[in-house]
């Protein structure tokens, strides 16, 4: 991305919150923060004038003015401290509100229409969306406010102290070719040229930092994600004894982190040499420029100190981009990452599922000319026409890889590569149980009710747990823990059947949802569903021959996209 593209993306990211429903409160608070910074600049101008009076009093040995001037400074300093502290505090308040709004907006967009899932299906190269939402938004808000308020403050400082420096520096007369050249406000012009050259030099010294910061964040996130994967799959890795392989993977990813960081260090070292040299030279330059007037008696000590202070303020303002180049590089990298994330979410949003929905009579389910494909265009199911009346018990079979699970994803509306028509009874509730149930963090009660909000009385929950063979957990309903770690896969699948009893769907879709259970337990759960929810329709994906006894129809799929509907 070039500078213009980064600027456009930054404008879109920046404008969202400030044009939102909270815009007036947000703008008012930001205006107050900016006003505090402007007032702080005014206090600095008063302190600059105090320098002249105080040092002149020292030079003239005016003891009577010494203590009153110290008292004046104390008052100005205390006021400056209070204003500076609250300027930062309220800026952080703006940061919290802005970050909250952006995080809510990104989370809503990421979760809407299963964008989080579609990005994975499409093979999006967005690395670690969690980091984009968690860290990059925080960095974007923080760095933007830091640079924006800093820029406005420095521009105000430049305007205020530029006038002071212009008046203090007077005129400088140069003799060129027998002619006199008078330069008014020569110290101001010199500081302007000095800062301009310094900014160009800083860009040359630090321009590589943008890409290096971008890569550093990506490598750090990959390294952290790899460790998180080991934690999530610790039991499988332990069974395989794969510690050496995982350790090798850690070192490979960490080597990228360190290699890029070495480059970042070297480039930062070059920039720091330049920035610190630039800053130290700026200390002696005003003394050199003002020395002729001071030694000629045209300027008192107080005037010299005031001039040096004013030059320093002007120089700081003009050197803002030099001092902030590293921060600007970080912000540019963040903008690029958020731009990439936005683009991939937009791509996922624009992928439409070709399945049109209508209403089926009598609560049934009808599939007309249904086609299911893979992202590469390969067809898994073609021209499927199936009519399933209410109460159907359909078993989907076929060899591994023929697309049985993908068919259920298509029926759930989360697979974007389907075509055809699907008619469902009006108001029919549908529940899908994957092979590995998802258990959210929190209490067992919350895990039981997912995706519903936890509620109900304990007596009903105890009864449900009893029916699915998990009665020993009835006393732990409000225990908060990582239940996906505590429960075995078989227990998790039984818990998923408990959800069916709580949700009471009209259509239940099971994707090998009993694969971790023994055959008697599997039969017991299917029979329990038939007894407790006799009107519920079931569509199961499975390989076991024992499942035939629990269904009355078979949809047999092949690897060529063909299908057969058979009676059991």
Key terms:
single chain; 568 residues; 4-stranded mixed β-sheet; 64% helix; 14 strands; alpha/beta; elongated; 6-stranded mixed β-sheet
Structural write-up:
The chain is of the alpha/beta class and 568 residues long. Helix content is 64%, strand content 14%. The chain is built from 18 helices and 14 strands. It has helices at 3-18, 23-59, 63-111, 115-121, 129-169, 186-206, 209-232, 234-240, 243-295, 301-318, 320-323, 325-350, 404-412, 444-449, 458-467, 483-486, 489-503, 519-532; strands spanning 171-176, 179-184, 354-360, 365-373, 379-388, 393-397, 418-425, 430-433, 442-443, 480-481, 507-511, 537-541, 553-557, 563-567. It has a 6-stranded mixed sheet, sandwiched between helices. The protein has a 4-stranded mixed sheet with strand order 3-7-4-5, covered by helices on one side. A hairpin with a 5-residue loop joins strand 13 (553-557) and strand 14 (563-567). Helix 6 (186-206) packs antiparallel against helix 9 (243-295), helix 6 runs parallel beside helix 10 (301-318) and helix 7 packs across helix 12. The longest helix is centred in the middle third of the chain and has 53 residues, at 243-295. The two termini are 60 Å apart. The model has no long low-confidence stretch (mean pLDDT 85).
């Amino acid at each position: 991305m070039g500078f213009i593209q980064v600027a456009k993306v930054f404008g879109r990211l920046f404008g969202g919150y400030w044009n939102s429903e909270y815009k007036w409160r947000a703008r008012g608070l930001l205006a107050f923060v900016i006003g505090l910074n402007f007032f702080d600049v005014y206090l600095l101008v008063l302190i600059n004038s105090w320098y002249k009076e105080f040092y002149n009093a020292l030079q003239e040995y005016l003891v009577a003015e010494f203590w009153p001037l110290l008292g004046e400074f104390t008052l100005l300093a205390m006021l400056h401290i209070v204003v500076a502290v609250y300027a930062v505090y309220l800026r952080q308040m703006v940061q919290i509100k802005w970050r909250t709004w952006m995080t809510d907006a990104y989370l809503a967009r990421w979760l809407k229409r299963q964008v989080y899932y579609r990005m994975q299906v499409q093979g999006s190269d967005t690395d670690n969306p969690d980091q984009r939402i968690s860290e990059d938004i925080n960095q974007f808000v923080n760095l933007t406010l830091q640079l924006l308020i800093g820029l406005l403050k420095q521009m105000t400082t430049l305007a205020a102290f530029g006038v002071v420096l212009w008046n203090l520096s007077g005129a400088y007369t140069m003799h060129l070719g027998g002619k006199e050249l008078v330069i008014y406000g020569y110290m101001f012009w010199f500081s302007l040229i000095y800062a301009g050259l310094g900014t160009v030099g800083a860009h040359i010294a630090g321009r590589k930092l943008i890409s290096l910061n971008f890569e550093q964040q990506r490598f750090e996130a990959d390294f952290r994600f790899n460790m998180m994967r080991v934690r999530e799959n610790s039991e499988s890795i332990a069974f395989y004894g794969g510690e050496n392989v995982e350790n090798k993977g850690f070192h490979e990813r960490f080597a990228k982190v360190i290699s890029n960081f070495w480059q970042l260090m070297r480039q930062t070292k070059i920039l720091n040499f330049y920035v610190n040299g630039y800053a130290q030279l700026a200390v002696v330059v005003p003394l050199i420029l003002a020395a002729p007037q001071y030694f000629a008696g045209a300027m008192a000590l107080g005037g010299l100190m005031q001039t040096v202070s004013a030059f320093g303020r002007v120089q700081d303002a003009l050197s803002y981009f030099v001092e902030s180049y590293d921060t600007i590089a970080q912000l540019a990298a963040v903008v690029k990452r958020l731009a990439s994330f936005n683009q991939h979410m937009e791509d996922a949003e624009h992928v439409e599922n070709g399945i049109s929905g209508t209403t089926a009579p009598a609560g049934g389910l009808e599939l007309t000319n249904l086609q299911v494909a893979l992202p590469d265009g390969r067809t898994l199911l073609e021209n499927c026409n199936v009519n399933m009346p209410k109460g159907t018990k359909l078993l989907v079979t076929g060899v591994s890889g023929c697309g049985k699970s993908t068919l259920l994803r298509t029926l759930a509306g989360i697979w974007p590569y389907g075509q055809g028509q699907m008619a469902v009874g009006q108001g029919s509730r549908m529940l899908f149980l994957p092979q590995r149930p998802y258990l959210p963090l929190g209490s067992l009660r919350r895990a039981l009710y997912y995706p519903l909000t936890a509620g109900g009385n304990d007596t009903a929950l105890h009864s449900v747990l009893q029916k699915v063979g998990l009665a020993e957990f009835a006393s732990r309903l409000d225990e908060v823990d990582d239940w996906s770690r505590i429960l075995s896969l078989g227990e998790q699948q039984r818990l998923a059947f408990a959800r069916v009893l709580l949700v009471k769907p009209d259509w239940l879709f099971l994707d090998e949802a009993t694969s971790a259970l023994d055959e008697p337990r599997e039969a017991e759960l299917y029979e329990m569903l038939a007894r407790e929810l006799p009107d519920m329709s079931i569509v199961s994906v499975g390989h076991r021959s024992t499942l035939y006894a629990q269904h009355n129809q078979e949809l047999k799929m092949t690897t060529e996209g063909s299908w057969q509907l058979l009676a059991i």
